[in-house]
Amino acid sequence: MTIAVPDSALADAVLARLVKVYPSAANPFRAQEQIAYMKGVAPFLGLRTPERRALSRTVLDGLARPGEDDCAAVALRCFALPEREYHYFAVDYLRRHVTSCSSDFLPVARQLVTTVSWWDTVDHLAAHVVGGLVAADPGLAARMDEWIEDDDLWVARTALLHQLRFKAATDTERLFAYCLRRSSHPDFFIRKAIGWALREYAKTAPGEVRAFVGANEGRLSPLSVREALKNI
Question: pLDDT per residue over 68-121, tens digit each?
Fold first, then answer.
């Protein structure tokens, strides 16, 4: 089900500025390089990240802090635009203002995860937006139990990565269960996510990760094992 875009005067102001400021710095030659690097997932304006974020500060200068509906409206409207830099703007905006959003924002996050899905937006949404929502409301972990079972690999990848920044607050049992649940998945992005999630948690609990991988090496893909143990 597609989520309706809330009315938001703040989003009107943000988008009006954004669609003027970003294209003013477009670089068609660089855009073609970015399209090739991102496997043609979306068109690009050709903005480098430091330049884009400087332009974003110009766009947001003097504007109010958003509420939850404003966040939803900005993000959904940005993701409806074709060029990838607008999607990046939305992700940065949500990372900055995720504390303005309640648990009710999770369906919006899911829609963004499943819109023009690729690692460059999904991974930040997983770790910083979905993860932020779950950290603020642990009851949402039950929704992650549903997401890990999803047929959409990007939704499942988000479930695997949502605890990426939790460190000592990581639900170890849930993390390990998710890794085993999707260990036989054939897709590179799921197998890589399993290894990445374990590798990140190994910075906090290397012994637990080493023991888990050792006990389940026959079930985990070689890619997942290699990634998990890379820094141990």
Answer: 999 999 999 999 999 999 999 999 999 999 999 999 999 999 999 999 999 999
Sequential DSSP letters for 168-213: GG--HHHHHHHHHHTTT---HHHHHHHHHHHHHHHTT-HHHHHHHH
Chain-centre distance of CA 83, in angstroms?
17
- Phi and psi of 4, rounded to 5°? -70, 145
Number of folded domains that form the chain: 2
Q: Examine residue 116 and state whether it is found in any structural domain, yes or no.
A: no
CA distance 51 to 41: 21
The range of the structural domain enclosing residue 170 comes to 138-232
* Shared-domain flag, residues 231 and 160: yes
- Look at residue 15 and tell me if it is in a domain: yes
Give the domain CATH number at 27.
Answer: 1.25.10.90
Alpha-carbon distance 124 to 175, whole Å? 18
Residue type, 165: R
